[in-house]
Amino acid sequence: MVERAAFVGGCDGVAAVASARLIGEQPSGTIPHALILIMGDTVEATRAFDEVIEKTVPRVALIDTFNDEKFEAVRVAESLGAGLYGVRLDTPSSRRGNFKAILQEVRWELDLRGFSHVKLFVSGGLSISDVLELTDAVDAFGVGTGISSAASLDFSMDIVEIEGRPVAKRGKQSGRKSVLRCRGCMQDHVVPFGAGKACSCPGEPVERLVEVLRSGSLVSAPPAPKQVRARCLEELAEPGNNTPITELLGI
Ligand SMILES: [Zn+2]
Q1: Host H or E run for residue 19
Q2: CB 22 within 8 A of CB 4
Q3: N or C: which end of the chain has fewer CB within 10 A?
Q4: 202 CA distance to ligand 1 centroid (A)?
Q5: How far is the CA of 198 from the centre of ligand 1 (A)?
Q6: Which candidate, 124, 53, 129, places its Cα nearest to that of 90?
C-alpha cells in the first residue's frame, strides 16, 4: 500500500517486485553497493552491469562506494560515455558534509567534460526537507523511509443519512454532502448536497464526490493506479494550486 500511495502521489516508479506487480507497473532499480563491493571497482561493476542487463534499463552508476563522488562520476562517464544515463549518490548523512555543494561539484565536473546528459540521482535516508533543499541540484530522488513514515491522513466512514432522513452521531454533521472544489483557489468546501456554490471567490465549483458503491455493489470499476497518478499530477499543476508544499505538510 505504501508503494501504491507513493506511485499515485506522483513518484515515477517503485523498486519492490511484488509492489510493482500490484500496481501493474515494471519495478525499477539501479546498481546496488553489493555489486561494486564484490567486483572491487565502480567502473568495472558498471561495465559488467552494462554488458549483462537488458538495454531498456537505464545505466545509472553508483559512485559513492569507495572513493570521492566527483572522481568516480568522471571515471564512469569517461568509460561509458553516451551510454551512461546517470550517476547515483547514496551517501549516508554522516558522510555527506555539504551535500548540495558535492552535487554541484559533480555536476560541474561532468558538464565541463561534455557529460551534461548524465543525470544526478540521490538516495539514502532522504527526508522531505532534504528533497526540498536539494531539488535544484538533483534530477531524481530515491526515497524510502521518508515516504513510508509520512504522516497519515485520518478518515472514517459514518452514517449521515438513512432513507433520506438526516441522522448522524454526536460530533458529525448529518445529511448527504457535496464536496465542491473551487477552480479559482483550489479550496474544497463541504456543503449540503445540491448547494451549487460555496466559495467567496469567482472560481467555478466542481463536484468532487463520485458514487462508487450502491447497495453493496461497485457502480464503476476503480481507476488503475496509473490513471489516479495522472489525475494527481494534473491537479498539482492547476494554476490555483499554489500552496507551498511546506505549508501543506505543516513543516
Ligand atoms: Zn475559491
Answers
A1: helix 17-23
A2: yes
A3: N
A4: 6
A5: 8
A6: 124
